[in-house]
Specification:
104 residues; mainly beta; 4-stranded antiparallel beta sheet; 64% strand; rRNA-binding
Amino acid sequence: MYAIVRAGGRQEKVTTGDVLTVDKLGDEVGATVTFPAVLVVDGDNVVTSPAELAKYEITAEVLGAVKGPKINIMHYRNKTGYKRRMGHRQPYTRVKVLEIKAGK
């Protein structure tokens, strides 16, 4: 069984036990979060209708915060002596999928 979930601005394919990196969540380490399902595949059964997807619950545990790769930004204007160098590292959160449960 696997599911496609909406996490941040992206959609991720998850199964039980997967560890994935999502946009930063404001939760503490060890907290439990739930993600909304976009699609659930259980063997030959594919669930896509919003009414049926509302019954599924994908729970995950927060493992900790991580940072993405460093992005270097250089601003330069010709003939003026203007140069500025900046950098950026996007904050992410690592989560481990605990279960995909059909409830309610």
